[in-house]
Amino acid sequence: MTTMSSSTLVSVIVAAHDEERYIGRCLRSLLAQRFPRDQFEVVVVDDGSTDRTPAILETFASEVRIIRNDSNLGLPASLNKAITATHSKFVVR
Question: Cβ(58)–Cβ(15) under 8 Å?
Answer without folding.
Answer: no
